Amino acid sequence: MNVLDRVINYFSPTAGLRRAHARRLIRSYSGAESNRLTAHKKPRNLSADQELLGPFGADSLRAWARDLVRNNAYAWNVVDTIVSNVIGDGITAQSTYETPEGEDIEDVNDARDKMWSEWCEVADINGQLTFSEIQILCQREICEAGEVLVRIIKTAGKEYKGISRPVPLALELIEADRLSLDKDTYRAAPASNNKIIRGVEIDDKGKPVAYWIYPQHPSSPYMPKSQMPERVPASEILHLFRRERIGQTRGVTWFAPIASTLRDLGVYIDNELQGSAIASCFVAAIKTDTPVGSLLDPDGETTDENGNNLEYLEPGIVARLKPGEDITAINPARPNSSAEPWINLMLRGTAAGTGTNYEAIAKDFSSTSYSSSRTSKLEDRPRYKRWQNYIVWHLCQPVWDEFCNAAARIGDDDFPTSSELLEDRRRYAPVEWQRPEQEWVDPTSEQNAALSSITNFMSTYQDEVGARGGSWRAKFYQAAKEKKLRMRLGLLTAEEQTAQMMAAQTGAVGPADAAQAEQDAELSGGGEWMGLSRLQWQRNRKALADILNGLADGTMSAALARAQLSMIGLSEKNIEAIISDASDGTVDNPLPAESAQ
């Protein structure tokens, strides 16, 4: 206190106390105060990379995370749940090359999709993993180890190590453990002006320049003792990890907030099992005045080599006691009725710390209502979508770009040239990524809401289909193919049958002609009457002949001819051509040949 505070405190202790309390509230955070509970903890403001160093840093934490995933069912399920929701069966590509007018060039897109699918089957450098499986492993490593590296390898040709690929390109997965710590600037002086932080070489702005990578895992029993790290340019490496702080160079396992919780949970469950085992041991005790041997083994050894009594318990034991001995029952009260709520509480903390939901982690849906399940799924989806976008932009899209570059190097006609890619890559090699499809929580209400949004122009098919992980283009083209086949086979829906019957009553195409219409369209070779049945084609042809004769002999005016020609389906351009042709009183055989049908 200063002099004024002491004077005020002398004459008015209450006022002095209020001043001291007000000053304390204004000038400090209670959360940063040191008390008997926090005196042993002294957190410091360290850089993102500095926090990853030391014996209790990211490397040690990564080892704990892998141990948990191997030995703890809940930890394994955390990783599997995240991977299943983010990657699913894999994020797939669909080429969307268009004309300047916005029309899809289907033959080019189909050729690109076919070559991409063939390459995805052998994307791994060893030919053992598909591109979808590479995505799954990458997401698992990001969750469990905190990071993963993917090396882009430009092979010498399409044939590499006995594996044939459509383009000279392959991917190699690299574990984070293979990043060399021997080159860390923290331990050794750098050979250049660049800094090397835990195997990652960066420039003065923090941009990765190269990665120092061991050829094999440093703990591999087959690794030579003289193994030296290789400097790989950053242009060949995709380094995937969750950035949680500015200036972070390496990733941290997602189990960082809950590693101690899961360890404690494992210890707690083990203790419960031990307590239950002890509770089941004693069955009976026999007292006697006759001297006997050990409590549990009267005929065997009673002490160890140090003279300590040998004592143990086992289920269903009948104990013989020495004279003067007695058994005091210790009841562990197992199984513990409060164990399950306590375990569930710890699992909720695990779910919160990993960005998942309790039901998915515990696989406990016994007390889940429809509303809570829907709320849980809707709350999780934005988080999973955010990581889907990360995988798309940091793994899938760079791989697609390199795939197009490889196709350009071999001069494939269906892909853009190198100059076109340099000019405008997104224009000449556009792609749409299809994420895993999200199931409806309430199909009826959600479908009606989506349809209403589209009808009222509040949403589009791209928005609604894309929100569920699909491609509106793929849905439309597939629906068109299915409808064409149904029409050919005569498999009409109730709505289509009703429309055909109404058309038949008005003298248009009859329902019996519908199945034949698609086949007639192919035979006609296109045109304005494409898709008509034979009957309707003959009717229109006769109507056109009557109109032409009327124009030629002057019994029909040009205005009436225009109206009737429009009614039978001719375009304005053809109508004007026919009217102009008939203006001289003759018609130059404008009818389609009878043999065309």
Task: Describe the protein.
- The chain has 597 residues and is of the alpha+beta class.
- It contains 19 helices and 13 strands.
- A hairpin with a 2-residue loop joins strand 3 and strand 4.
- It is elongated and about 135 Å long.
- The chain starts with a helix and ends in a 15-residue tail after the last helix.
- 20% of the residues are buried.
- The C terminus is likely disordered.
The order of strands across the largest sheet is 6-7-8-9
Percent range of helical residues: 40-55%
Number of helices: 19
Strand content: 5-15%
Structural class: alpha+beta
Mean pLDDT: 80
Q: What coarse outline follows from CA principal-axis ratios?
A: elongated
Number of strands: 13
- Biggest β-sheet description: 4 strands, antiparallel
What is the gyration radius calculated from CA atoms?
39 Å
- Sequence stretches where pLDDT stays below 50 over 5 or more residues: 508-526, 593-597
The rounded distance between the terminal residues' Cα atoms is 107 Å
Briefly characterize the structure.
With 597 residues, the protein is of the alpha+beta class.
